[in-house]
Design brief:
Blueprint lengths: L31 E2 L2 E2 H5 L1 E4 H4 L24 H18 L3 E5 H4 L6 H22 L2 E6 L18 H20 L5 E3 L5 E2 L7 H22 L5 E3 L9 E2 L4 H10 L6 E6 H6 L4 H10 L3 E5 L18 H14 L7 E3 L10 H28 L1 H9 L6 H8 L4 H11 L9 H11 L1
Parallel strand pairs: 3-4, 3-12, 4-5, 6-8, 8-10, 10-11, 11-12
Antiparallel strand pairs: 1-2, 7-9
Length: about 425
């Protein structure tokens, strides 16, 4: 088929002095920073649902997005054409990965059998394109929130027939993800929660959700899928409350139901904002539990109370994210998936390129700044010194697990009132500003 973006060349790296809006100013894929190339640090992914499918509608108006390659039908042929467009888009941006929901890439039929047949047909095309280009599937997932049958949940639906349908859909999505070499599989509980507690039995719903996850783990083993499962936290919207509300809630659920060894978290900035947290908080909580797996790279508008899914351009944000990733040692199977959409006013195909270029450049700057902060050492040294009383004496005894309340009392009676040091918050903020 002919090019979908004939007037747009492959996006070059031209450096910070370039005025070309279709060039990278900071993202140089093969540049080595902190021992790895930028490409390997970031593992950027295109979100199929936004880049290829989002119409840019909002609660107050119809979609504005111009997609001249799309004939507007739900045909399999149109879905296959869309796959070619996505791979052309990735190629011109130099992005190696993509992510999808099953219903993003293939039309839903009148029956599950029809839907499965459609998904297999489009997966044939995706497999051919992956082999031809070397592009990879970062993770797949099932859309268990858009269809009216899921209006009261999927794995937490009060209707066992809906629950069964959701399980069948996940089974197929797992099979296709495995077939396409997906490096992980994500569960986003878009409607796994409640609108009101007057009609909700939380205990039964949580038990049902856990049973669903255990079935998925069992089937993953059966088909030989080796990638991790991810859970993506989000507190609310569209539901009043969703059970996977933040990193801590997800980890608590996984521990309570014996699932933690099988799951990591896929953290999204906009969801952290809706939970009343910072992105860094959510990442640090996941990292502390050894459960940080992947990241949906976007941001939200703090003045708007819903999930705006904007492209990340805040250098402080990307620096904080990359500091956590470098602390973790980098991604293994996860990556930075641009779960972000253009603004409704930015509706031309070229705007998709501007948006991704900006996000990639922002993360490149964040990587370099984070690496410089770590190499400088002052921030890490301050934090280390702040906890130094736990490196020996009574503090070390606490950390080693051999301390009692009697020991703490005896120590305090002998040593008297503690002398504490300043947290130096302003100094540390100034320190970070030196690098930004």
């Amino acid at each position: 088929m002919s090019e979908a973006f004939p007037d747009i060349p492959k996006i070059p790296f031209e450096g910070p002095k370039s005025k070309n809006p279709l060039a990278f100013k900071h993202y140089n894929a093969d540049e080595v920073v902190a021992g790895k190339t930028m490409r390997d640090h970031m593992r950027f992914g295109v979100a199929y649902w936004h880049a290829m499918r989002n119409t840019l509608s909002d609660p107050f108006g119809a979609g504005t997005s111009q997609k001249p390659w799309d004939d507007g039908t739900d045909s399999i042929e149109n879905a296959k054409k869309r796959a070619h467009v996505c791979f052309e888009f990735m190629d011109k941006l130099g992005i190696d990965y993509y992510c999808f929901h099953d219903r993003d890439v293939a039309p839903e039929g009148k029956t599950l059998a029809e839907s499965n047949k459609s998904l297999d047909a489009v997966a044939d095309t995706l497999e051919e394109l992956q082999k031809a280009t070397g592009k990879k599937l970062l993770w797949g997932t099932a859309c268990l929130f858009a269809h009216p049958r899921y209006n009261q949940g999927a794995a937490t639906s009060p209707n066992a027939n809906v629950y069964a349908y959701a399980g069948a859909q996940v089974k197929k999505a797992l099979e296709v993800t495995h077939r396409l070499g997906g490096e992980g599989y994500t569960f986003w509980g878009g409607r796994e929660g409640y609108a009101t507690l007057w009609n909700t039995n939380i205990k039964r719903e949580m038990d049902h959700l856990a049973a669903f996850m255990h079935m998925a783990v069992d089937y993953k083993k059966k088909i030989g899928f080796a990638g991790p499962f991810y859970i993506e936290p989000k507190p609310r919207e569209p539901s009043t409350h969703q059970y996977d509300s933040d990193s801590a809630a997800c980890l608590n659920f996984l521990r309570e139901y014996g699932l933690l060894e099988h799951f990591k978290l896929n953290i999204e900035t906009n969801h952290a904002t809706l939970a009343g947290h910072t992105m860094r908080h959510e990442l640090e909580v996941a990292l502390a539990a050894g459960a940080l797996g992947s990241i949906d790279a976007n941001t939200g508008d703090e003045l708007i109370g819903w999930d705006t899914d904007q492209f990340p351009t805040d250098i402080y944000l990307t620096t904080q994210i990359m500091l956590v990733l470098l602390k973790m040692g980098g991604f293994t199977t996860g990556g930075l998936n641009f779960d972000a959409k253009c603004r409704r006013e930015s509706f031309e195909p070229v705007d998709l390129f501007h948006a991704h270029i900006g996000g990639m450049d922002a993360f490149a700057r964040g990587l370099k700044i984070a690496a410089a902060i770590i190499e400088d050492g002052r921030l890490d040294n301050f934090v280390k010194q702040r906890y130094s009383t736990f490196d020996s004496g009574i503090g070390a005894k606490v950390e080693q697990g051999g301390c009692t309340l009697e020991d703490l009392e005896a120590y305090t009676l002998k040593n008297g009132e503690p002398v504490i040091g300043s947290g130096r918050q302003e100094m540390l903020e100034n320190l970070v500003n030196e690098f930004i």
